[in-house]
Design goal:
Mannitol-specific EII, Chain A, PTS EIIA type-2 domain-containing protein, PTS_SugarTrans_NitroReg, protein kinase activator activity
Length: 144
């Protein structure tokens, strides 16, 4: 579901592993960008080597920056069932992916940065995790 030009929601996805999530992301990204699926997965894995992308219990925030992206986006993948093990993390229910186009405009960077700060609000993340309907989930994203 395309909420607007920056946010995209994929609700109740049946992905069972980190690898399946990264493959899913790579398919989405490579559809509209000149970047290959393999390159997306490579960049996500390279980011993982720097450190954990766990931002809260049950929530991962993988991200990449590339000059092969046509526009910056934030993807939300709400899983049907938690991923039991993701690196050292357990029971991952929500994956929020930041795709940042290199040399992005200041306005878009500010918008993304502002949204990322919302993750410091534990109650907000809990509302996202507890949303069982796609409409409710999307309203939480738009309404913050």
């Amino acid at each position: 579901m395309d909420i607007n030009s920056i946010y995209q929601v994929y609700f109740n996805c049946e992905l069972k592993t980190k690898e399946e999530v990264y493959s899913f992301i790579s398919k989405i990204v490579s559809q509209d960008n000149p970047i290959s699926k393999e390159e997306v997965i490579h960049q996500l894995n390279e980011r993982d080597k720097i450190g954990s992308t766990l931002i809260a219990e049950h929530v991962m925030l993988p991200h990449i920056e590339s000059d092969q992206l046509k526009k910056s986006q934030i993807l939300f993948i709400r899983l049907v069932n938690p991923i039991i093990t993701w690196d050292q993390s357990k029971d991952i229910c929500l994956v929020i992916i930041i795709l940042l186009k290199k040399n992005e405009s200041v306005n878009i960077k500010k918008r993304i940065s502002s949204f990322i700060r919302s993750f410091a609000d534990e109650e907000y993340l809990n509302r996202l995790l507890k949303s069982h309907e796609e409409e409710e989930f999307s309203e939480e994203i738009i309404g913050y």
